[in-house]
Amino acid sequence: MTLSRARALGLIGAAALLPSCSGAAGDAVRIGSKNFTEEFVIAEIYAQALEAKGLKVDRSKFNLGSAQIAMAALEHGDIDLYPEYTGTMLIEVLHRAPLRDPKAIFETVRAALSKRGLVVLAPSPMNDSQALATTQAIAKKYGIATLSKLAPVASQLRLATIPEFVSRADGLPGLQKFYGGFRFADVKSYDIGLKYDALLQGSADVATAFTTDGAIAANDLVVIADDRHFWPAYNVAPVVRAAVAAKYPQIATVLKSVSPLITDVAAQKMNYAVEHDKADPADVARTFLKAHAL
């Protein structure tokens, strides 16, 4: 398991945001999603892009829950496709050891899941991975564009984080072992929604992050590059039942045109629109597709 992706809406409130099913399930492509903002928006992007090309879509299985629940629904034929992360498929679905190379991760999950009757389409450049973030001023002052540069100067800086990060092997202890250094002058744990406040209010110099957090784009923060690839990649990709992909070849064609457009910055802005501005995920997806003439 990776550190918690706690960028979730409340289940009841999130469900209320979702549009009703379009088309009868028997004639429609049944799209699912997990239970947090980014999944709702990306599932909507897939759904609306397919509808624009004439396919009927059933959204009744949005908000399924965890990766295990969503993948089970896919394999059991309860849904036809949903967005999943390559690192999640590798580690949580296939129970494989983490890999450093994003291409190797994709090829591994693509090959393994094809044996289970699933097609993993080409992933987006968007990579919802763990990260450390800081302000433009701190990044410039200390010259910390990369984790390799941050590691030796961490002793001069304060870290705002969440409790898990302090003890887990894929958190601070792992960074210290992998990069060396990372002995921060002060480490304070916060509720996940407050760590950015600590950074922006000057109570911390660096904060733990996910690379597609809405607060990054909204506050012009710097994501410090993981230049040695300590954390696995979590590129989002459409996963489709092979029988459905064969029945509707336009799914691959349409999503191949959409996926390259979903970047870290695009995801940050869309997540922020839903979480901060309280926009409907369907409206956010529609705006995204219109901006790209899709």
Polypeptide structure, described:
The chain has helices at residues 11-17, 37-52, 67-75, 86-93, 102-114, 136-142, 147-153, 163-167, 172-179, 195-200, 214-218, 242-247, 250-258, 264-275, 281-291; strands spanning 29-32, 57-61, 81-85, 118-120, 130-134, 158-161, 186-189, 206-210, 222-224, 236-241. It is an alpha/beta fold and 294 residues long. The protein folds into two domains: 11-127 and 234-291, Periplasmic binding protein-like II (D-Maltodextrin-Binding Protein, domain 2), CATH 3.40.190; 130-224, 3-Layer(aba) Sandwich (D-Maltodextrin-Binding Protein, domain 2), CATH 3.40.190. A five-stranded mixed β-sheet has the order 7-6-8-5-9. A three-stranded antiparallel β-sheet has the order 3-10-4, sandwiched between helices. The longest helix has 16 residues, at 37-52. It starts with 10 loop residues before the first helix and ends with a helix.
